[in-house]
Amino acid sequence: TSEMLQKICLRNLVRKYCQGVTAERKVQLQQKVVASAVFRGKKEGYLQSINQPFMDTRLKENDINPKVLQLIHGEKIKYVTPVIKYDRNGFKARDRLLVLTQSSAYVVEMAKIKQKIDYATLKGISTSNLSDGIVVIHVPEDNKQKGDVILQCEHLFETITKLCMLANKQNLVKVVQGSLQFRIGSGKEGTMVFTVGQEPQVFKAKNGQLTVV
Predict the structure, then answer these.
(1) Measured between alpha carbons, how far is 30 from 32 in angstroms, rounded to an integer?
(2) Signal peptide location in the record (predicted)?
(3) Fewer CB within 10 Å of terminal CB in the chain, N or C?
(4) Residue 208 — left, alpha, or beta (φ > 0 → left; ψ -120 to 50 → alpha)?
């Protein structure tokens, strides 16, 4: 009888907890479950991020240039965050916005859309096992795309989780060690090398590779 009562009591406590969870709290828990599946035991800094709630967005719609809003009219904006984009050839750093809608990801410069990635065509998302904020969005090899997108995000766990959930492609997220390949365009590939140093930096090495410290 005691064992049966314990099970009933536990079931009742779980039921009360579930009924008391708000819609906002449920969304937060769902995102954290996905983040755990993608990053736990794989990327440095994940454990420290667990108790930090994910924000709905880092910027609001009125922070986006009206011309950009007109260009993506009809797509509901779900998440916006400032990022640093690295050119695929010279690796020059440029300030951009990453705008995630219900169906696409946009890399935005002021009043221009520099690149649009439909979630249906997304080939993969890569990041390193170290504590850097680099993420590479892999796109298909076609004339519509200039090549893979190299970004640096301050809130990497949050950004990647939002992206893979909106695209429904969390199984395409890879946490790599040492290096990764990215597509430059026209059938060419580049190499990104991850290493450990005294201070964080991202630069083009003498051998032409993008080095992330």
Answers:
(1) 5
(2) none
(3) N
(4) left
21 domain residue, yes or no: no
Q: Who's near 126: CB < 8 A, 6+ residues apart?
A: 135, 136, 138, 173, 174, 175, 176, 180, 182
> Is 14 inside a domain boundary?
no
Angstrom distance (rounded) from CA 112 to CA 68: 6
Sequence-ordered list of residues with C-beta below 8 angstroms from that of 78, at least 6 positions apart, any chain: 57, 100, 101, 102, 162, 166
Q: Is residue 3 part of a domain?
A: no
Note the pTM of the prediction, 2 decimals.
Answer: 0.90
pLDDT in tens, 88-126: 888 999 999 999 999 999 999 989 999 999 999 999 999
- Is-contact 98 159, C-beta < 8 A? yes
CATH code at position 129: 2.30.29.30
Domain enclosing residue 90, as ranges: 43-176
CB 97 within 8 A of CB 110: no
* pLDDT (0 to 100) of residue 80: 97
Q: Report how many domains make up the chain.
A: 1
